[in-house]
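Dear support,

We are seeing what looks like truncated structure output for some complexes. This example has two components. We would appreciate it if you could run it in full and send us the complete token output so we can diff it against ours.
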Amino acid sequence: MAESVVTEGEGGDATRRDFIHIAAGAAAVGAGAMAVWPLINQMNPAADTLALASIEFDLTKVQEGQQVVIKWQGKPVFVRYRTPAEIQRLAAEPQAGSPPESDAARTKEGHQQYLVVLGNCTHLGCVPTFGTGEFGGWFCPCHGSHYDASGRIRKGPAPLNLVVPDYEYVSDTRIKIG
Amino acid sequence: MSDHESTYVPKTGVEKWLDSRLPIVRFGADYMSLPTPKNLNYWWTFGGILALCLAVQIATGIVLAMHYVPNVELAFASVERIMRDVNGGDLIRYTHANGASMFFIAVYLHMLRGLYYGSYKAPREMIWIVGCVIFFLMIATAFLGYVLPWGQMSYWGAEVITNLIGAIPVVGEPVLIWLRGGPAIDNATLNRFFSLHYLLPFVIAGCVVLHLWALHHAGQNNPVGILIPKDRQKKDTVPFHPYFTVKDGFAIILFLILFATFVFFMPNALGHADNYIPANPLVTPAHIVPEWYMLPFYAILRAIPDKFGGVVAMFAAIGVLFVLPWLDTSKVRSMRYRPAMRTFFVIFVLVGLGLGWCGAQLPDAPVVPGMPSFQLFDGQLNSYLWLTRLFTAYYFAFFLIIMPIVGLKETPLPIPATISEPVLPGGGDAMTAAAPASTEKKG
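Here is the complete output from our reference environment:
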């Protein structure tokens, strides 16, 4: 039995050596990760890109029935002054789109005539055009997605409604996006 | 081959001096004298052609980078300046642009050669897998390069392709922003794409070294698809140089004639006219199409009704190539002796071309104009959408179902014992003057 104790002792020596290997390996992995992270993180948005957070827009520039496309954070934003006929038609409809939303949920209280949405198709990012398509709204030329006058997806491969960005009315005719 | 012994004998004093210090001449000489199966046909010349393509792209690319400015305000104009003001700049730019197409023509033929003759089978799996890595890097590099002129197709191609990554659940959105360097495709994106477009070709070159190393270690396949027995080495192989350097050289000249025809007489035939319109982040062209060499994969992407599902299918179409050596259950390498499989292979080639054709069409457009049709799930049956789905199904069935099953069920034709047997009376043992001249043209 004494021999087996000696063997265990040798095993114990090996364990201490193993510890050095593991510690050295762990230090190398840690140092590697610390070195790699800044090399990855440098590709995330830079401070000047993040600083371009919000813009203001004067709604009096938009005529009834017109759509103005403005650029915000490098993306198009549709600001559309909808006609009373369109608003009436949308108000009569139940919830639609994906996820199902009512038109009221996509506009601001008291400003139903103005629809503000990001102008990128939720499929692969192309810019839909207004006035074509089967639902009285936008049609995306890239892969044939149809949106209604509330910017809700009604047909085609796009998975979601046109995104309503964070915006607020700073006065009755000015909105701040972002 | 691995057991290829060095036959180099340094002759001059300089060579002897160098050989005992850095045997680089020996390395080159042994490399070029590699015993090569003597029955290789012209499908075996695309490796050399691809090496040339890589060299052309790197050389013209470095030159173009001396004049190109990777900034959204200046990129498009700097390319036009290359076209108008830089000495011979139009030629260099057209060579680089058409060079990408030539690169892909050659790589597709190279891959189909490997597929037909079983060049991916043991002991050549690593040659094939490294080749698949090279193919994937080529696609990535070509995509990054196409963004640089900052035309409409550049911009919206980048938008659509980066959005594919955004389709990945959970991590997609952060990775998308990381890749773009902001909320949208912008200067940060262009700037980094330039850096990576410069880097990746050198990674490809590194992979080509591994590809050739694996090739030289396992030995070249040949149209008969048999391993050359040890005792037949002398009879069935010839040194790579000068026999195949000259043959490859001849093929390269033919290929360069095709290349030059495009560069000099129809430099824009393979491109898209909309890329001569500067990028406009607010307007998407009515019909955006990728470059021709991406069309089959783009078609597979669009065939799947689900956004993320389409992305998975597209990457799976390339991913399945990596495991090809383990999907083919047949012991016979060359399809020359597999008549059943050969039929499926021909259909596969046609389906690949069909996918490319479908990728360029609008999904809703009818395949046969005017033919009455009916709605099937989410589209008319008589539409490119459903034709693409049919082709996509065959593409995957070919690898995942047909290859494993046909390999087990088929009865192959008798396989010759040596590569000389099919062409030389007596298996080439008696080297008569009658036949050998025609050996290379068969197949």
